[in-house]
Amino acid sequence: MKFLRNTALALLAAGLPLAAYAQAPALTTFPVGTATVTASALTTGLDHVWELVWGPDNFLWMTERGGRISRVNPATGQVLPLLTLPDVTPTGESGLLGMALHPDFATTPHVFVVYNYTDAGSLKEKVVRYTYSAAANSLTAPVVVLGNIPATTTHSGSRLLILPDRTLLVTTGDAQMLPEAQNRASLNGKILRLNLDGTVPADNPTAGSMVYTLGHRNPQGLVRLPDGRLYSSEHGPSNDDEINKIEPNRNYGWPNVEGACDLPGEAAFCAANNVREPLTTWTPTIAPAGLTYYDHPAIPGWRGSLLLATLKNQQLVQLPLNAAGDAITARPVFLTSAFGRLRAICVSPEGRVYLGSSNGGSDRILTLENRAFVASATRAANAFAFDLFPNPARRQATLRLPMANARVTVRDLLGRAVLTLPRAGTTAVLDLTGLRAGSYSVQVEGAAGSATRQLLVD
């Protein structure tokens, strides 16, 4: 356990670029409620940014469709290449796509990527696991977790998402083989769920099958909220791009249903096949891509919303959710045509939003931030403090807070919320029984400011 604790703290310290985020020149500003959001370029000269993930080293991890995997320093924009995949096939829309980091990165530094490759003249898709070395800044020891998925140069998906139970979700497109989306024996047009070693989880909807959901055309965004709800963005044909609430064993209709079940033939199919209608659709299409969830006080107007990057419409779309998470209440847009096609998106623990463009050859990562919040939060941090004990802790930890009605959020090394207390009293108890051993951050937000402390769970 001492090794785990020291390794976790070393990871947090070694890459911590918090000393000074040099403010890059503003490219544009725009209002979000009462806040002013500034967009600036973190780094340029990239080529089709496909994935952005906030890493446990406090760096951005990035994939580019041509096959390069890199770490990006969010304080300086320096790009540190880790690996260019030797067997990727970047043709049309195919190439290196999604990426996910193991939640227990301090002790299991595994990086999962999904990409297209050529096998005996045929284009296919596979999920491969690499092992990261911080000392060498490299990825080595590839292991194919899932391979031989049929593919074409379009409709390959694919996003990866590791769930708290350490299973992996993989979105796959229909590979232009439309009927396969309804074929449970096919891996195409699905969201798949598998163990991290590539085996089938015992509690999947159908015994022995990786199929978690079916009836998808080309899902290219996937996000899990702190309360466990899952959402996906999906490309329609020439109509009905979708945002879907993902539920196990549900059918999402394609190709028999486009968008809602609002035609007679569609309604009958939906009733007979457990179809889950989308939360919202777009006609004309917008080409929805990366999807994330925002719930940080830095930009209050975005709290409780999905944020969607779009390719065709070249916009950032805010999708506020209702309290139940089963309806989208508005669709405001930002940055229309300002930076071209937008595909990748993620949020840092400090509330900055990072966007990756996908124009080809001259792409960049953009930083969206409320610079006024960063300054005021820094000043308030000294006056806003709380006690946390015991630390390290095992089954529970106690918080002594400076005021009531504070919001408490526990985040893992990837910055993901794993425990939330929306309205804590002046004393609160954290139930840690569902958390694995490792390092976490405890963030407390109240009317007087916010503060964060590290918590070690034995």
UniProtKB/TrEMBL annotation:
Signal peptide residue numbers: 1-22
Ranges in coiled-coil conformation: none
Limits of the Glucose/Sorbosone dehydrogenase domain: 46-359
Gene3D superfamilies reported for this sequence: TolB, C-terminal domain (2.120.10.30)
Keywords: Signal
Signal as UniProt keyword: yes
Pfam family, one: GSDH
Protein name: Glucose/Sorbosone dehydrogenase domain-containing protein
InterPro entries according to UniProt: 6-blade_b-propeller_TolB-like (IPR011042), Glc/Sorbosone_DH (IPR012938), Quinoprot_gluc/sorb_DH_b-prop (IPR011041), Secre_tail (IPR026444)
